[in-house]
Amino acid sequence: MKQIEQIRRKFAAAPQLSSVLTICGLLILVFLSMCGYSESYRSTYNITNVLAQCAPLACVSLGQTLVIISGGIDLSVGSTISVCTAIAARLMGGDSPAQVALGVAVVFLFAAGVGLVNGLGVNYLKVPPMITTLCTSTILNGVALWILPVAGGKINAGFARFIYKKWDIISMPLVLLVLLFLATRHLLYHTRTGTGLYAIGRSRPIAQSMGVKTRAVSVRAYVLAGLCAGVTGLLLACRMRVGDPTCGSSYGMDSIASAVIGGTSLAGGSGLLSGTVAGAFLIGMLSNVMNILEINQFYQYVMKGSLLIAAMVIYSISGRLEVRRRAS
Amino acid sequence: MRHNSLLQRAGRLHSLQPLILLAIILVMILAQSILVPGSLTLDQLLIISRQASALGIIALGQAVVILVGGIDLSVGTTVMMVNIFCITGMQASNSRVPAGLLLCLGIGLMIGAANAVGVLFLNIAPFVMTLCTTTICQGICYVYTQGAPTGSAAPFIRAVGTGRLLGVPYSTVIWLGLAALLWAVLRFTTLGRKLYAVGGNPKAARLSGISNRKLIAGAYIFSALMATAAGLILTGYHNIASLTLEGDYAMNSLAAALIGGNAIEGGRGGVWGVVLGSFFMMLLMAMLTMLGISQVGKLITQGCIILAVVAVQQLLKRD
Prior knowledge:
The complex is a heterodimer. By secondary structure, chain A is an all-alpha fold. Chain A is built from 15 helices and two strands. Chain A has a domain of 206 residues. In chain A, helix 4 packs parallel to helix 9, helix 4 packs across helix 10 and helix 4 packs antiparallel against helix 14. The two termini of chain A are 23 Å apart. Chain B is mainly α. Chain B has a domain of 216 residues. Chain B contains 13 helices and two strands. The chains are: A mainly alpha, B mainly alpha. Chains A and B meet through helix 7, helix 13 and helix 15 of A and helix 5, helix 11 and helix 13 of B.
């Protein structure tokens, strides 16, 4: 009984939790019905692949969620990913471990630098987040083309294999995602920075008067978003084993969509990381499902949009029921 | 009386940002005449204004949606869809123009209404809803054309896209006409006052008897119709059906509206800032092309300059 009471209290503390559960339920529903439908879907090979394929989007969405919770938005993550793959392809072709380590370090330094520029632009130049990140996105598109005019370069094969190592159903990208999730989770729920992020998302003036260092906290969110994009960039580069100056372009919008599907409000101040991961898996799984069902590539656009709308509708209905239940 | 003084104060704050933008545009034009001597002519500015007109018209719609606190990412795809269906609907003959125009109008209304229904009745965040309509419309275009659109525009549409009235391109005239109309509506009618109210404080607006839903739905439909108009103009200008015509209109129109001093939270902004913002974006691109800068350099300079412009505006606004 005591445990049930505890669970109930947890629900009351985080109203989005029930919505997250809705999305998770939807995810499991899609998954189970596909397992029932298709022989090839049930195979361990496919399930491992699906999980590994969804990991890059989930990684970048975690960072995006931090920024959105702090009341901002980061449209530049897609271009950051592209530049990261380009850098990785330029630097990590060699065989020596030192060279690979150097490449990884440069990628993360660059990604953090992009985040820092975004954070400084938003907080010190007072440029609205959407404009700042749109501008850095444009600049980074240029930088990506400058580093690598066409898709190419090379990633050290051993490193790429290591990043995509698989043990039965568990794969390295999944492990990395879990580690990143735990790290961001700790940061968001158990540190002062995390509390500060929620506070400045709700109301900056109030947070400031309560002694939150609003600028520093916000800058940290952008830097973390950049780092998460760096992780995604490395994952993509290792998957393709080449760099591609345009490969990240869809990740900007998709990461925002997965955060919002997961229950994070674009107004800032509320959201959960678990919802974001569920949202990212939902988006990633939909395209996989449509490939398995052999739906025409062109129809996939229509399906993806409609399914996202359907997910959001289920979500808003469950939210409304929740509100009504609480009111009564 | 107090009400009037409040309005005036709000007006002063709004008018500052477009003025800074105007000054920046003048500086850029001056810089161009120094960097590339003899390139600065009235005709060149008119050509840039024609290029800016499509973006400008879209940005007008985007500005209204932003004003009521929403965001419309589907404008680019609306342009693409209108382009494709306008060309197949008219079959390059003037006699089918009315039917084609009706078809395009229908598409615009449908997209706008879909956005409005999603945002207002299904309670989906505008960002996600318009993103979904974007994906769906893209899919419809791909399926319809099987990835390879063909055909050319009807002579009438071509005339609208390329013709000139006393030397001024028709598209510029349409753009500025629509802008003036929107300005008059926002400035002098209760409808305009209500739009600001809904964006500024939705709860207060509802309590004072404004039907928020109607206004917000109207804003999305207006935005889609503006994108439709821009799609027709672009079709006439380019004279081809293309799956890449959407370009970056969603992001660029957003940038143009925000550069012009409209607030993304809604409730603040004007029309002329948006017009100048669109012109600024196109002038910048035209200048970079004229200076012979490569694609890489263009992207980098463009990003830096837009960032700098907005930063300068913010710095000056605070004083």
